[in-house]
Amino acid sequence: MSPQTVKIKTLKIDGIDLSARGGETILKVAQENGIWIPTLCNLDGLSPVGACRLCIVEIAGSPKVHPACVTEIYEGMEVITQSERLNRYRRMIIELLYSERAHICAVCVSNGHCELQSLAKVLGVTSIRFPHLIENHRVDASHDRFLKDDNRCVLCGRCVRVCHEIEGAHTWDFMGRGITSMMITDLNQPWGESESCTRCGKCVHVCPTGALIEKGVSVAEMAKRRQFLPYLKMMREGENK
After folding, report:
1. Fewer CB within 10 Å, N- or C-terminus of the chain?
2. Global pTM?
3. Do 74 and 124 reside in the same domain of the chain?
4. Cα Rg for the chain, rounded, in angstroms?
C-alpha cells in the first residue's frame, strides 16, 4: 500500500483517544502507545498468527473476545484490554499451558528468562486447577549446538516463522493436532540429521521458554537474544522491493 492510500483511523483503547494507520492491528497500535497486552506467540519481526490467544481484548458492540494481534483497527473502534473477564480467560490459558507439558521452573535452564513464567507471575497464576496431562517426551540432543525439549514447548510457532520468514530454511513445522502437536524438523527427523538446518540459532533465541536451548547452559542461564529480528526483517523487505 502506497503512503498516499493509507488512511488514518481514530479509535479508543482503554478510554484513550488514539489515531493509527489503517491496516494496523490492535496489538500494534497498543504497543506503539505504551499499552500493555500480554502475548506469547507474537514477536516483533515475525508475522502474527493468533496462536496463543493471550492477547484477547473486548471490542464495544461485540459479545466475543478478539485476538489483538490479528484484528485490524477500524474507524471509531473502542477496545478494552483489561477487565476481569479478560484476565480470567488469560489466567486459564496460562494454567492450561502449564498442565499440558512439564514446565517445572525450578530445574529449567530458562528459569528467570521465560516468557511463560513471567506472564504467570504478572497475571497472578499461582496454582493449576486442571489435571496434568504430562507425557514424557524424548529430548532431542542430536544437534551439536542446540537441544530440543518438547516437554517445555508451548506450540507458539515462533521457531517455524523465524526459520521460514527470516532464515528461509523452513526446517521447523508442526506435526499432529491439539495437545498432541509437536514441533518437528524436516520430515520428523532428528534435529542433528536435518539437511535444511543452517545452524543459525534464530529458532533458539525466539523460543519463549526452555524448549529450544543452547547446549552447555545450566539452570537459569539460558537468556534469549532476539534483538536481531526487526533489523533482519527490514533488510529482507528492502531486498524484495
Report:
1. C
2. 0.89
3. no
4. 19
Its domain, for residue 35, covers 3-82
Tens-digit pLDDT string for the chain (241 aa): 455 567 999 999 999 999 999 999 999 999 999 999 999 999 988 999 999 999 999 999 999 999 999 999 999 999 999 999 999 999 999 999 999 998 889 999 999 999 999 999 999 999 999 998 877 888 999 999 999 999 999 999 999 999 999 999 999 999 999 888 999 999 999 999 999 999 999 999 999 999 999 999 888 888 888 777 766 666 656 555 5
Q: Please tell me the total count of domains within the chain.
A: 2
- Of 82, 116, 141, the one marking the end of a domain is 82
DSSP code, position 158: H
Show which of 82, 117, 152 is a domain's final residue: 82
Instruction: Specify the amino acid at residue 90.
Output: R
